[in-house]
Amino acid sequence: MQRPLGDRTEFGRGSPWPYALELCDRLPCPCGGVGHLEAIASGPAVLAEYRRSGGRATSSSTAELAEEARDGDALAREAFSKAGRALGSALGGVANLLSPEVIVLGGGLVEAGDLWWQYLEQRSPKN
Ligand SMILES: [Zn+2]
After folding, report:
1. Residue 21 Cα, ligand 1 centroid: separation in angstroms?
2. What is the whole-number distance in angstroms between the Cα of residue 35 and the centre of ligand 1?
3. What is the 11 CA–ligand 1 centroid distance (Å)?
4. How many other C-beta atoms are found inside a 10 Å radius of the C-beta of residue 92?
5. Taking the CA of residue 116 as centre, how many other CA atoms within 13 Å lie in the half-sphere pointing to its CB?
6. pLDDT the model gives residue 4
7. Could you give the count of Cα atoms lying within 13 Å of 37 in the half-sphere of its Cβ?
8. Environment class of residue 58 by beta-carbon count within 10 Å: exposed (0-12), middle (13-18) or buried (19+)?
9. Other beta carbons less than 10 A from residue 8's beta carbon
10. 43 DSSP 8-state letter
11. How far apart are CA 83 and CA 16, in angstroms?
12. For residue 25, which of 35, 46, 69, 87 sits 20 to 30 Å off, Cα-Cα?
């Protein structure tokens, strides 16, 4: 799946990294560290965030959780939103620093569609 992330001169305006770091602050990362972007912006992190926020533990995968989010589970939607905002903010910082022509994203979260993309694409890190 390919989607444009917008005008790179606009993408990631402001100070995106502090916002991304705020979202993953003190969260345990699968690597054993703490506060890494993966702790909030990966597929397993979406499921973990959902459970931390009090969501039902019936979903065993991010794909199942996406279905619950589409069915109206507000906590599930928020978990996808946080992941998208965190990664979008971080990518904004990367885009500002490196000015890449293309950023390629893969993995299961890409399949979450607008549950995740719309937040990743937001240009203002605080929105
Ligand atoms: Zn890590």
Report:
1. 12
2. 7
3. 25
4. 27
5. 27
6. 54
7. 14
8. exposed
9. 17
10. H
11. 14
12. 69
The residue with tokens 């993408």 is 11
Domains with residue ranges and CATH for the chain:
16-120 (3.30.420.40)
34 - beta bridge partners? 28
Global pTM value: 0.81
Quick one: tokens of 39? Answer: 């702790």
How many A from CA of 26 to the centre of ligand 1?
A: 11
DSSP string for 98-119: H--S-----SGGGGGGGGTHHH
pLDDT of residue 78: 95
Give the mean pLDDT per block of 10 residues along the chain (127 residues).
49 58 84 90 93 87 94 95 91 85 88 90 54
CA distances from 66 to 8, 9, 27, 116 (A): 28, 31, 22, 9
Token pair listed for 64: 């199942």
| pLDDT value, residue 103 | 87
